[in-house]
């Protein structure tokens, strides 16, 4: 029989925003549950090494346990069949989750932009490469190039060097002028200076500004990359790419939350356009851990009926929103990146749809009907963001299930209905 749970406040996502929201809501006396598809809390930013929680997460997990929040790890939300109800799936069962208030802290994912050779084996997302190393991938002596945009390039470069990788270059598309203006404004954020200075000293000489990978080359797997500024090629075994982040909007859109300019629209108290549904963290705007945490706290206080405590946090929220705007300006993607795709460059990896097949369509739906772009296993999670950048297509509709559901879980659900 399908299991059912009920919470005063249900939080989806156990990253920095979700954990802050759950702890805060529970402090107000609410019965709180927090759902995450990963086996451990922490989200992507605090992904733990195998068998070990990251130090930043361990403290929050201790607070979660002490607050009485119920952790539902390894559970993926696949449907929102009606207001106040979500459907979750494990590898073998379905769970009905009922709530009075819902906080969406579903995070973001890396933005990938197509270029010739980006589908070669060993070309991957920067976060994915770091996750593989945390899971045991041995990169000692491996030549690695990191390319894209944003502070994550430097953080991961420093991390890989600690594990013995030979980082050949950190290729940042933002201009030197943009980065200089960004650095000049960091005096307002001393904690960021403290975090970033050791990393920059560790990899600073490797950073190439105003540059990007034009193409990747190799027979059966990656062997080299060519930069826009380079006459020759850089020999390497791995290429990590990330052009920033895009929010995970599938669940908010399925519930009906209004999305404006690619982000969930919220008011100052994190209320979405749907009553009793709140949103915090990257789905409302990419702004870093500090902004995610303060938004999570505000959502938790508001959802548990303590708006006066949420109001106290507004100055801190405004501070980190200003930092978010500075990030957007400094690392805005340049027009030249749209010109990297060649006619035969694959844009939709799941369905092998090429750039020449997509030219001329006015919207993603039209292209999907004619080419199957976005109809593969990832359901447009990768190509959707890149086609928005390349062609200006807006987000399409979302339908359940949000991710593939195991047949065993569906079978158990049907058996429960017939009993």
Task: Describe what you observe in this structure.
The chain has 419 residues and is an alpha/beta fold. The chain has 14 helices and 21 strands. It has helices spanning 16-27, 55-67, 126-134, 152-162, 176-184, 190-203, 250-255, 289-303, 307-311, 314-330, 355-358, 364-371, 383-391, 407-418, and strands at 3-12, 32-36, 70-73, 76-82, 85-89, 94-104, 108-110, 123-125, 143-148, 166-172, 207-209, 213-217, 224-227, 234-235, 238-242, 245-247, 259-260, 263-264, 277-279, 346-348, 353-354. The strands form six sheets. Strands 1, 2, 3, 4, 5, 6 and 19 form a seven-stranded mixed sheet that branches. Strands 8-15-9-10-11 form a five-stranded parallel sheet. The chain has a three-stranded antiparallel sheet with strand order 12-13-14, with no helix packed on it. A hairpin with a 2-residue loop joins strand 4 and strand 5 (85-89). The longest helix is centred in the C-terminal third of the chain and has 17 residues, at 314-330. The chain is globular. It starts with a strand and ends with a helix.
Q: What does this entry show, briefly?
A:
This protein is 34% helix and 23% strand. It has helices at 16-27, 55-67, 126-134, 152-162, 176-184, 190-203, 250-255, 289-303, 307-311, 314-330, 355-358, 364-371, 383-391, 407-418; strands spanning 3-12, 32-36, 70-73, 76-82, 85-89, 94-104, 108-110, 123-125, 143-148, 166-172, 207-209, 213-217, 224-227, 234-235, 238-242, 245-247, 259-260, 263-264, 277-279, 346-348, 353-354.
């Amino acid at each position: 029989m399908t299991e059912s749970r009920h919470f005063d406040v249900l939080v989806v996502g156990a990253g920095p925003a979700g954990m802050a929201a759950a702890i805060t809501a529970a402090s107000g006396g609410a019965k709180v549950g927090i759902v995450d598809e990963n086996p451990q809390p922490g989200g992507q930013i605090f992904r733990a090494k195998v068998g070990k929680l990251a130090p930043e997460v361990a403290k929050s997990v201790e607070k979660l346990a002490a607050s009485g929040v119920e952790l539902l790890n390894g559970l993926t939300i696949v449907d929102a069949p009606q207001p106040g109800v979500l459907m979750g799936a494990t590898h073998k069962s379905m769970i009905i989750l009922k709530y009075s208030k819902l906080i969406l802290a579903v995070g973001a994912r890396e933005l990938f932009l197509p270029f010739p050779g980006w589908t070669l084996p060993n070309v991957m997302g920067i976060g994915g490469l770091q996750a593989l190393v945390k899971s045991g991938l041995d990169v000692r002596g491996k030549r690695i190039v990191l390319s894209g945009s944003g502070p994550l390039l430097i953080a991961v470069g420093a991390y890989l060097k600690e594990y013995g990788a030979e980082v050949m270059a950190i290729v940042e598309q933002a201009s030197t002028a943009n980065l200089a203006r960004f650095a000049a404004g960091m005096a307002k954020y001393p904690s960021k200076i403290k975090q970033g200075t050791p990393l920059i000293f560790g990899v600073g000489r490797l950073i190439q500004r105003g540059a990007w990978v034009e193409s990747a080359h190799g027979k059966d797997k990656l062997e080299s990359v060519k930069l826009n500024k380079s006459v020759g090629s850089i020999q390497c075994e791995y290429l990590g790419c990330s052009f920033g982040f895009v929010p995970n909007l599938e669940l908010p859109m399925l519930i009906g939350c209004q999305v404006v300019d690619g982000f969930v629209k919220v008011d100052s108290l994190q209320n979405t356009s749907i009553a009793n549904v709140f949103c915090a963290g990257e789905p409302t705007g990419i702004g870093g851990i500090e902004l995610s945490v303060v938004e999570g706290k505000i959502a938790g206080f508001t959802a548990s009926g303590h708006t006066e405590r949420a109001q106290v946090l507004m100055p801190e929220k405004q501070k980190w929103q200003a930092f978010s705007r500075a990030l957007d300006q400094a690392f805005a993607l340049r027009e030249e990146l749209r010109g990297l795709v060649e006619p035969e460059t694959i844009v939709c990896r799941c369905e092998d749809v090429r750039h020449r097949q997509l030219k001329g369509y006015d919207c993603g739906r039209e292209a999907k009907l004619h080419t199957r772009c976005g109809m593969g296993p990832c359901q447009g999670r990768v190509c959707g963001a890149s086609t928005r950048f390349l062609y200006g297509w807006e987000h399409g509709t979302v339908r359940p299930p949000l991710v593939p559901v195991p047949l065993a879980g569906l079978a158990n659900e049907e058996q429960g209905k017939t009993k």
